[in-house]
Amino acid sequence: MNFELLALAQTDLTQEKTDALLVILTSAFQPGQDAVSALIAKVSQSGDLPAKAGQLLDIYRPAGFACARLVLLQTDAASASDVRKVLSAAVASIKASKPTQVTLLFAQDPSPTMLRVALTALADASYVFTTTKPKAEARTIDTARLVVADVPGLQAAFDQAVAAVAGIELAKEWGNRPANHATPSKLAQAARALSKLPRIKCKVHGPKEVAKLGMGAFEAVAQGSDEPLRLIELSYNGAGKSAQPVVLVGKGITFDSGGISIKPAAEMDEMKFDMCGAASVLGVFRALADLQPKINVVGLIPACENLPGGHSVKPGDVVTSMSGQTIEILNTDAEGRLVLCDTLTFAERFKPRVVLDIATLTGACVIALGAVRSGFFTADQALSAALVSAGESSQDLCWPMPLDDDYAEGLKTNFADVANVAGRPGGAITAAKFLQRFTGAYTWAHLDIAGTAWKSGTAKGATGRPVGLLLEYLMCCAAVNTTT
Ligand code: BES
Ligand code: MN
Ligand code: ZN
Questions:
Q1: 472 lines ligand 1 (CB under 6 A)
Q2: pLDDT per residue as tens digits for the range 140-171
Q3: Which fold has domain 2-148?
């Protein structure tokens, strides 16, 4: 999907030959003298479009306009969720006519955040996954033109939104692929493909190298499957060699059956999404290549399957992590933290300024925060504030969770330095406490995206979150630190 940004002053909307002219109205809109204003005034007088957020009026071949249809969308300018809902309704309303081109007009210029929300919502509403369903009706919209009054003021937000959409759609593609179409090796190929883009490099480590690194926890998870593990290493070099990178670590469990501690059958298919952290890292690199910010970023992805079998790790087994700490694996379904802990140790060699790990880590986080906000954990106040703020401005929201040491009590065991599970209470936090033991060498935050990375039910599918949040965080890092 291509996007164009046009200046209102240079656009004759009556002559705009588009399949659908979507006009986003807000209650504060003051109609001017132009043709669109006249139409809006007529409509609001008639009462056909109540001034209530979420209302929509789809007009077929409006007199005096070259567009095939004009859709008026009533929103509350301040509500991202309103803008998303009404745009998704508009896309559904025009879908039958198979539009290839749409033009989005903001009756009143949006904030940079709302412009990004609108653009990502439009992409989201028209997204179709076709890789394993070739007969599915693919997206028909190939171009979306955005008309605003202040182009220079909104250009940066527009560029970032366009890059975010490309990243989000890459993350969705890999998240949505079933596990047999997204094996660790295939995920590694997807990362390799990114190294064709400017300033991106990719290295892939296999089982031998991972054994040599001493990643006993990662190996323990992978050993139950015939699919060989991959440790994927991406780098984006936008700043000088000496600039310390931000390291992103994405959980890449391409299928999580639970292993010997096997999961119930219902909804087990959704564990193909257990690599959405990894997919978000791929998506961020895709977007970085577009935006070319002055920052260094490393992406690390431990990728493997978690399966039961004759070679599987068993409850009670003790393994030695790359850090030297021994781990008693009491529950083989708590595998995410095992692949992550070794990768977090591996991250030390990049001398990171910050490490963020992104993981569909716990069902407990879904219970705590639902599908609205991702949970994050960090002991660093500045990083915490930066993540909350990046969440707000990308409207890919997150929320801080606690890391009190008392939460780690349940991880104590007589048989190893640490157990991989505590009890059920505070499960998202005890998982974070486990990870924290491996992050002493740098500033770190853990993002639990178990509730936000995909949707269940009829709308089942990856969301591409938190690509928008991570990208916004990185762009802010680049803006603050342009010299190093
Ligand atoms: N990938 C799951 C977490 C998950 C479960 C995400 C359901 C979204 C929906 C993770 O590997 C897992 O199985 N976690 C266990 C941990 C438990 C054994 C301590 C969980 O959350 O039940
Ligand atoms: Mn699991
Ligand atoms: Zn998992």
A1: no
A2: 999 999 999 999 999 999 999 999 999 999 99
A3: Leucine Aminopeptidase, subunit E; domain 1 (3.40.220)
